[in-house]
Amino acid sequence: MLNNYSNNIHVSSIVEKGATIGPKVYIGPFCFIGSNVEIGEGTILKSHVVINGHTKIGKYNKIYQFSTIGEVNQDLKYTGEPMSVDIGDYNCIREGVTIHRGTIQRGTTTVGNNNLLMVNTHIAHDCVISDNCIFANNTMLGGHVTIGNFTIIGGMTAVHQKCTIGEHVMIGGCSGVVKDVPPYIIAYGNHAVPSGINIEGLKRRHFSKKSILTIKYIYNLLYRSGKSLNEIKSQIKIMSKEHIIIKPFCDFFNQSTRGLIR
Question: What is the mean pLDDT of residues 243-252?
Fold first, then answer.
């Protein structure tokens, strides 16, 4: 269904019967849109873009040439089940980005809103990307990775499958992340290790001085107190009732399965 905007689809592109194309969508030369794809209002496909499978793309996204979204994942256990990709609004997906469909374990690969995925980023099956993230060139995410809001990942960084990275995190370039990364911190290296809290990022997002000091206190608990992780979790849970800024730590610990970076 083309919603009477077929004049925005280049003659060299293929849109299979059954695809839903919203108003004001522009599809440039040599694109392929599969029959189970839904593209929301105002989204732009520059050229040579492939969107396949059960893929839903929201409003006003920009997708650059040679990107592939919704293709068969690279999980060797996958046998063709109708898994999906769900992408929100206002994302910028640069050249050569690959976003693979989910597997039977989760079903969907999810990208939220207002993210910048730079050149050659790879998002594997079943990943969950939140909002307002920036992934620099050649960021590689394994399957089932979860990324929190406002996280920045430096170029040529690899994240091991099933890792959880909390919100407002900064990962330095050329890093290898093999453990879970708590919210609000900076990490870098191969393997990535913690390097303090993301003060500049928090200031840019208008965190108060009190909030930053509270986050720094939690960081010191995690990495300098010598307490067990169970003791720290209990203390954080109590503190979160008074300091809402700490709640992301509680959410992170509920999701974490691979252990913390050290």
Answer: 95
- Report residue 136 CA to chain centroid gap: 12
- pLDDT for residue 3 is more than 90: no
Residue 80 annotated in active site: no
At residue 212's C-alpha, the angle toward residues 207 and 217, to 5°, is 155
% of residues, the chain, pLDDT over 70 = 97
125 among known catalytic residues = yes
Domain that holds residue 224: 202-255
Residue 181, in any domain of the structure: no
Which listed residue (48, 122, 125, 144) is catalytic?
Answer: 125
Q: Which residue reads 């509920």 in tokens?
A: 254
Q: Give helix then strand counts, H and E, for the chain.
A: 4, 27
State whether the Cα torsion 158-162-165-167 is positive or negative.
positive
54: domain CATH number?
2.160.10.10
* Average pLDDT score over the chain: 96
Total domain count for the chain? 2
Catalytic hit among 126, 142, 148, 166: 126
Q: Active site includes 176?
A: no
